[in-house]
Design goal:
Elements (H helix, E strand, L loop, with lengths): L12 H5 L14 H12 L10 E7 L3 H8 L5 H4 L5 E8 L11 H18 L3 E5 L4 H8 L5 E10 L9 H8 L7 H4 L6
Antiparallel strand pairs: 1-2, 2-4, 3-4
Helix pairs in contact: 2-5
Length: 191
C-alpha cells in the first residue's frame, strides 16, 4: 500500500512517501545495517545548542526486551506493534547539565524521530511513531535513570497488506493520508 502525499509543490520523495502504517510483515527481519543506519540518522538530527538530549533503546522482535517494551504500550498498540521487526524507544534528558528543566528536549526528540522515520523510508521500510505507553512502566522496562523520560516509540518494519489488521487498526490503515490545507495553517507569508 502506498499513500503518496498530494502536495501543492514537489517535496522530497522520502517525505512524500513516508506514512505511518500499522500493518507490518511479521516475517521480515530488519538487518543490523538497516538498524544502524536508522540510529545514525537519529544521532545526526539538529539539536538546540548541540545538547543532543536523546537516548535510544532498540529491541528486535523475538527478544525479551522487545516483548517487555510492547507490554508497556497502551490500547490497541499492543495488538499491532508485535508484528514490527524492531521497536526503538526515544528517551530524553529532562534536565540540563546545570540541573534546570530542559523543555526544549521535546523539540529535539521530535527532530531525531523525524530523521529516523525519513531514513527508514529511504531504506524501503516504514516506521510508525507511538506515544501510547505507560511511561513509568517503560521507564522500569528500560531501567532509565531519573533524568531520562521515555517519550516516543518507533515501530519499524516492512509494510504488510492492511487486511492483516482487524478492528480500529484496520479502519485507520485504509483511511487516506490527509493534512490540513496550507491556507488553513499558513498565517503569514503565503506565496
Amino acid at each position: 500500500m502506498q499513500k503518496t502525499a498530494v502536495t501543492a509543490a514537489a517535496i522530497a520523495p522520502a517525505l512524500a512517501e513516508r506514512w505511518s502504517p500499522r500493518a507490518f510483515d511479521a516475517t521480515h527481519t530488519a538487518s543490523q545495517h538497516e538498524l544502524l543506519s536508522i540510529l545514525e540518522a537519529g544521532r545526526w538530527a539538529p539539536s538546540a545548542n548541540n545538547m543532543q538530549p536523546w537516548r535510544f533503546s532498540l529491541a528486535t522482535r523475538g527478544s525479551e526486551l522487545f516483548d517487555q517494551i510492547v507490554g508497556a504500550l497502551t490500547g490497541f498498540n499492543q495488538a499491532w506493534v508485535p508484528r514490527a521487526s524492531a521497536v526503538l524507544v526515544i528517551s530524553i534528558k529532562n534536565q540540563r547539565p546545570d540541573g534546570e528543566p530542559y523543555p526544549i528536549a521535546m523539540l529535539d526528540a521530535g527532530l531525531t524521530a523525524q530523521n529516523m522515520m525519513i531514513q527508514t523510508t529511504e531504506l524501503g521500510l516504514s516506521a510508525h511513531p507511538v506515544a501510547g505507553m505507560v511511561h513509568e512502566d517503560m521507564r522500569k522496562v528500560l531501567d532509565l535513570a531519573d533524568d531520562l523520560d521515555p517519550i516516543l516509540l518507533l515501530a519499524i518494519g516492512k509494510v504488510a497488506p492492511a487486511d492483516t489488521l482487524e478492528g480500529p487498526a484496520y479502519e485507520r490503515e485504509i483511511q487516506p493520508r490527509v493534512r490540513h490545507e496550507l491556507d488553513d495553517i499558513v498565517l503569514h507569508g503565503k506565496p
